[in-house]
Design a protein that fits this description.
- The structure holds two protein chains of two kinds.
- Chain A is about 75% helix and about 0% strand.
- By secondary structure, chain A is mainly alpha-helical.
- Chain A folds into two domains: about 50-180 and about 255-405, no CATH class; about 180-250.
- Chain A has a two-stranded antiparallel ribbon with strand order 1-4.
- Chain B contains 17 helices and 22 strands.
- Chain B has a six-stranded mixed beta sheet with strand order 6-7-8-3-9-10, sandwiched between helices. In chain B, strands 16-19-20-13-21-22 form a six-stranded mixed beta sheet, with helices on both faces.
- Chain B is globular and about 70 Å long.
- Classes of the chains: A mainly alpha, B alpha/beta.
- The interface between A and B is large, with 46 and 55 residues.
């Protein structure tokens, strides 16, 4: 019965009151942002369980720095998953690039920016290598990246030659544990941090207002003004609180700046760009995309190049944070990144998923890790709990879709 | 024993917010072929799901009496145990299993120790295959036989369950004329063996041919039940759409101009087997404002020709020349073909035409994102506006353009596909089975759209397995047989017989 939905919609369209319309928008937003509410719930739960330790400035700062590399990987992973692939190699690639960066920055003592640039280039080449096998030879990504997982872990060990590389230059280390602070002198609340937060909020509101205006000028339906303003206020309060916490600690982590820039770039790429549309089209129906003129192979190839660069960046951030390139680096990263994408609403069959969702999924995992560590829960239970959360999140998603009528394929 | 094998009395079935069936009564006489007609979404499938227990007893109101006994089916196994078997439009066979394995799937022939007795399985399967007129070995994989034969395997499977009432949902939708005819013969043959059939079909000529009684359903209500002697296509159509359709094809006065597209010596080989010629030296041309038909049996190479032309999406070792307005063009990739003004709307919307989990808007813009974007960024608002224009002009029935393509009916899905290609602004549109699986009312709308496109000066190529459709809308028809053009007939001289003769003639070598 394909027509039911339409008929239902048509029937409920008989002059509903304004309040009902407004309420339906709020409900729709909540439904769409269920994962965000889950994040808030997890934060509230652990804030309560840890007697507020979770929300202490130092801990909030740690949360970002400790999870930065997973979030960076999640950004790439969600694109890979939307296109209907998977990447199991990102942890090994991160370790490999971390090791190589050690060779560049420490052993060869190249300037830090050249070392970083070359490392990212290596990431791109790794991505191109895997993309070639997947896109142009036609081997499933699962196999190619499973092989990559072994290959690049092995190569990381080869590069390291049975030793760790440490003592990275300070500028390099800043990637992982540097802070942007005290530019204007020392204050109890860092003005730079608050200033950046203020600019970010203003930019966000301006962007939202412009989108809204744009929609109105094309006479599309927009949400009620009160709810719109309410949301903006919520965002401002949330960011304000977050920034205040950072400002009273050490300021803005460099990792956060890197992340913010990535979210912005990849948000636009997936949402607004033709390349992004092609990713979703391929994931939704590869044949149809191909017959609509989408160069599916090229898109597949470049998705993996992006993933390679992001995996390299994650490797750099992780290495910088530990000030050490070691053989065990990046172990299990791929699973956390994949979990983040799925918890964030990406569909196993492809075609569905967002950067924002993956980031929130990654944060949920991060808060779980962090909260349970504060509570002194052992690593064994942490693993099990994270497994349950992944299962529940995807089950909830499946249930939600079924209730909404599901996809008819 | 009453004469009716089945009586469904006052069946009402509601879904949240909508009544799918209202007080429907259906009486099927023992040993007849009973056809059920109705537009997509009229409630035919729902009625059959109620009957077969897909919707369990209790989820609907009303009674079902089967063989004079009131039955309350909880699920499909319940109804099958009574001898009611439904064969769905989308075949439910497992491609990598053999015919015999499929026939006895979940009903395996057990031997010693509960293990499967393969000898008996295969010999029983062979007997069932003989009954449906199949000579294939029972150990052949289903994958290796055509759709027509797969349909017969489904019927053999039904026979293995000692079927008394066989329900066929659009059994010939995917079959060519030969296979269809064979299937219809088989249904009549089974009738002789005392098996009652309910057949759901869009094809009015088939219904007229084999049905003893026809029940028409519209908007969840049974409109009327007509005995064989009173059945006419006009009456069925009138009942189905609730209004008279004066003509099934809209009027079309062609304004034919210069030649838009000419294809010369087009040859394509099988993608796996490079020695097998599938499209053989085809020469065709289309003029501005002209609607050209390609008629051919299934397997004649119609779709293969179109797809090999459209970005080489089918075949290997493709050769030939393509000219647009007399100038040679290349169509080596889909992007290149689109750029050069050629569009191809596939015969299989769901698999090749649409992203079902994406909204109408994004499906429409898919082939023309370049036009809707600047510096690689898509203008969302412009896209929305364009999609809304198509929703209005093509009469796509949906609450908004944000509805998912997968939620639309076949006719509306096809309109989305057409919108996508019109938005790409091609000079030549190749439409492969543009009205397959679409109800009568929506068909008329699609024909109107095709006429409008021709009137705008586009060249249209229509590939169809329905001859009346080609005769109804085309200005000129090519016949294709075994990959070769066997004739070209202007519409004034075309008759069903003449085209059919060309379609079935052995191609000259």
């Amino acid at each position: 019965m394909t027509n039911n939905q339409n008929q239902v919609a048509a029937k409920s369209g008989t002059m509903p009151s304004r309040a009902a319309v407004a309420f339906s928008h709020v409900l729709a937003d909540l439904g769409k942002n269920g994962i965000f509410i889950a994040l808030v719930a997890v934060i509230v739960l652990f804030a309560f369980l840890t007697d507020g330790i979770l929300l202490r400035p130092q801990n909030i700062s740690n949360l970002i720095v400790q999870n930065g590399y997973i979030l960076i990987l999640a950004i790439g992973m969600v694109m890979v998953i939307v296109a209907g692939h998977i990447d199991l190699s990102v942890g090994s690639v991160a370790a490999f690039v971390g090791a190589i960066s050690g060779v560049f920055a420490v052993n060869m003592a190249l300037p830090w920016y050249i070392a970083i640039f070359l490392s990212l280039l290596v990431g791109a080449l790794v991505g191109a290598w895997q993309g070639f096998w997947i896109a142009y030879v036609g081997i499933p990504a699962f196999i190619v990246t499973l092989a990559g997982m072994l290959i690049f872990r092995g190569l990381a060990l080869v590069v390291l030659g049975n030793a760790n590389i440490g003592s990275f230059p300070a500028e390099y280390r800043a990637l992982g544990n540097g802070f942007l602070t005290d530019v204007f002198g020392e204050f109890p609340v860092d003005p730079l941090t608050m200033g950046l937060a203020f600019i970010a909020v203003v930019a966000f509101i301006v962007q939202q207002v412009r989108t809204r205006r744009g929609r109105q000028s094309y006479s599309q339906e927009v949400e009620p003004l009160a709810w719109f303003v309410g949301k903006m206020v919520l965002v401002a309060v949330g960011v304000g609180f977050f920034a205040y916490a950072l400002a009273t600690f050490k300021g803005v982590p460099i990792t956060l700046i890197v992340l913010a820039v990535l979210v912005m770039i990849y948000g636009i790429l997936t949402n607004r760009s033709v390349f992004g549309r092609h990713i979703y089209a391929i994931g939704g129906n590869r044949h149809a995309a191909e017959l609509s003129g989408v160069k599916t192979r090229k898109v597949d190839f470049y998705i993996f190049v992006h993933m390679g660069v992001l995996a390299a960046l994650a490797g750099l951030v992780f290495t910088a944070r530990l000030n050490l390139a070691g053989p065990k680096a990046g172990d299990g990263f791929e699973l956390e990144a994949i979990s983040a994408a799925f918890i964030g609403g990406a569909a196993v069959r492809g075609g569905v998923g967002t950067i924002g969702g993956a980031i929130i999924g990654g944060l949920i995992i991060g808060v779980l890790n962090n909260g349970m560590s504060i509570l002194g829960i052992g690593i064994e239970w942490q693993q099990a709990v994270k497994g349950f959360v992944l299962l529940l999140a995807v089950a909830f998603d499946v249930f939600n879709k079924r209730r909404a009528g599901g996809r008819e394929a | 024993m009453s004469t009716n094998i089945l009586e469904m009395r006052s069946i009402t079935k509601s879904f949240p917010g909508v009544k799918a069936l209202q007080d429907v009564t259906l009486e099927v006489a023992r040993g007849e072929v009973h056809a059920i007609c109705g537009e997509n979404g009229a409630g035919k499938s729902t009625l059959m799901k109620v009957l077969s227990g897909v919707y369990a007893h209790g989820s609907y109101t009303g009674d079902i009496a089967f063989e004079d006994e009131v039955v309350e089916f909880k699920d499909i196994r319940d109804s099958e145990s009574k001898g009611i078997v439904i064969i769905h439009q989308e075949l439910a066979l497992s491609p990598y299993l053999s015919i015999a394995e499929n026939i006895f799937l979940n009903n395996e022939v057990r031997g010693f120790g509960g293990l499967i007795d393969w000898n008996k399985t295969n010999s029983e399967a062979a007997k069932l295959l003989a009954r449906v007129g199949l000579t294939e070995s029972p150990t052949t994989r289903v994958l290796d036989i055509g759709v027509g034969k797969q349909q017969l395997v489904e019927i053999a499977k039904a026979l293995s369950k000692r079927v008394k009432l066989l329900i066929l949902d659009e059994p010939t939708a995917a079959l060519n004329d030969d296979d269809s005819a064979h299937l219809l013969d088989l249904i009549v043959h089974l009738k002789g063996q005392g098996i009652t059939s309910i057949i759901i079909s869009h094809k009015l000529n088939e219904i007229k041919q084999i049905a003893d009684t026809v029940t028409i359903i519209r908007d969840g209500k049974a409109i009327e039940t007509i005995p064989k002697q009173d059945v006419s296509e006009e009456r069925i159509i009138k009942d189905m759409v609730g209004r008279d359709l004066e003509h099934r094809y809209p009027d079309h006065t062609p304004h034919i101009g210069e030649e838009v597209l000419r294809v010369e010596n087009w040859t394509a080989h099988h993608p796996q087997d490079g020695t097998r010629v599938i499209v053989d030296n085809v020469n065709i041309n289309v003029k501005k404002g002209e609607i050209v038909g390609i008629a051919g049996l299934m397997g004649a190479g119609r779709t293969e020709f179109a797809m090999s032309l459209f970005g080489r999406t089918y075949g290997s070792r493709i050769s030939g020349k393509v000219f647009k307005y007399g100038k040679e063009i290349q169509t080596r990739t889909v992007a290149e073909a689109i750029e050069n003004g050629i569009a191809y709307a596939t015969e299989d919307r769901k698999t090749y035409g649409l992203n079902l989990i994406e909204d109408i808007k994004r499906n429409i813009s898919m082939a023309s994102l370049g036009k809707l974007s600047r510096f690689g960024l898509v203008n969302d608002n412009e896209e929305f506006k364009v999609a809304n224009e198509y929703r209005a002009s093509m009469n796509i029935k949906s609450p908004t353009v944000l509805a998912l393509a997968g939620k639309l009916s076949g006719g509306n899905q096809q309109k989305v596909v057409l919108s996508k290609w019109i938005q790409a602004d091609p000079d030549v549109l190749i439409l492969d089975e543009p009205t397959r699986g679409i109800d009568v009312g929506a068909k008329y709308e699609i024909y109107t759209i095709i006429n409008k496109l021709a009137a705008q000066g586009k060249g249209i190529i229509v590939i169809s397995s329905e001859l009346p459709e080609l005769l109804g809308i085309c200005d000129r028809i090519y016949a294709l047989s075994e990959g070769r053009i066997t004739g070209e007939v202007p519409i004034a001289e075309a008759t069903p017989e003449s085209i059919l003769k060309l379609m079935t003639m052995e191609a000259p070598h």
